[in-house]
Write a structure and sequence with these properties.
Elements (H helix, E strand, L loop, with lengths): L1 H22 L5 H19 L1 H10 L5 H49 L5 H9 L7
Length: 133
C-alpha cells in the first residue's frame, strides 16, 4: 500500500515538474509532449497497480515489475537514440553554418575591405573558432 502511494505521488510530481519546465520555457514542447504522455501512462499505474499486473499477464510476462523494467529499458534506448540523432543533426547544422560564415567573411574581405588582423588569420589557420561581434 505504501509503495502505491509513493509511486502515485511521484508520478503526479513528475507531471507537475514537466508542466513547470514548460511554463518557464526551459523544455521545448516536442520533448515535453513525450514526457507528458509517459507521465500520463505511468501515473495511473501508481493509483491502480492491478492494471499493470493484468497487462503483464495478457502479454505473457510473469509479473508487472518485469514489464516495467522492460518498458523502461526500451524507453531509455529510444531516448538515447533520439538524442544521438539530435546531436548528429545539430553537428551537421553547426558545420554548415560555420562554412557559411567563413564564406561570408571571405567575401567581405575580398570585396568590401573587411579588416583582417594577423591573429585572425593565424587563428583560422590553426582551426581555432573565433566569434566576431
Amino acid at each position: 500500500m505504501r509503495l502505491t502511494i509513493i509511486t502515485s505521488i511521484t508520478g503526479v510530481l513528475v507531471l507537475v515538474y514537466i508542466l513547470e519546465l514548460l511554463r518557464r520555457q526551459q523544455l521545448r514542447e516536442k520533448y515535453a509532449a513525450i514526457w507528458l504522455v509517459i507521465g500520463l501512462v505511468v501515473a495511473p499505474l501508481g493509483f491502480f497497480p492491478s492494471i499493470l499486473d493484468s497487462t503483464a499477464r495478457r502479454l505473457g510476462i510473469a509479473s508487472g515489475v518485469s514489464l516495467v523494467l522492460f518498458a523502461g529499458l526500451i524507453l531509455i534506448l529510444l531516448v538515447s537514440l533520439h538524442l544521438s540523432w539530435e546531436a548528429s543533426r545539430l553537428e551537421a547544422e553547426t558545420r554548415s553554418l560555420a562554412e557559411e560564415v567563413a564564406l561570408l567573411r571571405s567575401h567581405l574581405v575580398e570585396h568590401h575591405g573587411y579588416p583582417v588582423r594577423k591573429q585572425d588569420t593565424a587563428a583560422s589557420l590553426a582551426g581555432d573558432p573565433e566569434v566576431y561581434s
